[in-house]
Amino acid sequence: MTVEPAGTMIYEGKAKKIFTTDRPDQVLQYFKDDATAFNAQKRGTIVDKGVVNNKVSERLFRLLEQQGISTHFIERVSDREMLTKRVTIVPVEVVVRNVVAGSLAKRLGLKEGAAIDPAIIEFYYKDDALGDPLVNDDHLRLLNVATPAVLREMRELGHKINAVLLPFFKERRMMLVDFKLEFGVFHNRLILADEISPDTCRFWDQTTKESMDKDRFRKDLGKIEEAYQEVLRRVCE
């Protein structure tokens, strides 16, 4: 049985709950085992997913901080809880793609597995009711959710983060196919927020090209928990 934090819950998403702390500029993220796909049309549970995502995110946030990239991470306080800065999330998902896969292959009719060099970056408008649609800079200007300067900064940070993560995963015999980032504003600064985990990244084993992420849940590939635990083992080894 898991015990939830004692603070007041201020937000519950598909994968996390956010709680207040005794400091107004800090919150506690609680990582759940709930799994969703296809804009929450498919639901399930991945045992200990929350533990894996919390620990993997901690390792990667620490790595990025060491490389001069600011994040919301403060400390991991338990298997499922992470203390973070309280940010105002920019409602734009930044997707970095190194290999053709998923929706990109379907939309453009490209062969899955083809390398993308240099990486491309896509923006998606964070709105569950709309299905988080793919948007361009002009759409986001029309929606008034991010200024051109913020979009430029998110794009630059996406490439910087990719440059740090690609060799890190390569050393661990993993292909970083693509991944989603979210950013927030903290004291007028844009910093990386949310999580970096098998929920938000597409990982393939470098040798077998087998999926090591939430695609195993999306596509009913089986051995979902085993894949998440293997990612944790490689990332934290």
UniProtKB/TrEMBL annotation:
Pfam families: SAICAR_synt. PROSITE patterns: SAICAR_SYNTHETASE_1 (PS01057), SAICAR_SYNTHETASE_2 (PS01058). Its EC number is 6.3.2.6. Pathway: Purine metabolism; IMP biosynthesis via de novo pathway; 5-amino-1-(5-phospho-D-ribosyl)imidazole-4-carboxamide from 5-amino-1-(5-phospho-D-ribosyl)imidazole-4-carboxylate: step 1/2. Keywords: ATP-binding, Ligase, Nucleotide-binding, Purine biosynthesis. The keyword Nucleotide-binding applies. PANTHER family: MULTIFUNCTIONAL PROTEIN ADE2, SI:DKEY-6E2.2. Residues 10-234 form the SAICAR synthetase/ADE2 N-terminal domain. Belongs to the SAICAR synthetase family. It catalyses: 5-amino-1-(5-phospho-D-ribosyl)imidazole-4-carboxylate + L-aspartate + ATP = (2S)-2-[5-amino-1-(5-phospho-beta-D-ribosyl)imidazole-4-carboxamido]succinate + ADP + phosphate + 2 H(+). One of its GO terms (biological process) is 'de novo' IMP biosynthetic process. This is Phosphoribosylaminoimidazole-succinocarboxamide synthase. HAMAP family: SAICAR_synth. The keyword Ribonucleoprotein does not apply. InterPro entries: SAICAR_synt/ADE2_N, SAICAR_synt_PurC, SAICAR_synth, SAICAR_synthetase, SAICAR_synthetase_CS. It is an enzyme of class 6 (ligase). SUPFAM superfamilies: SAICAR synthase-like. Signal peptide: none annotated.
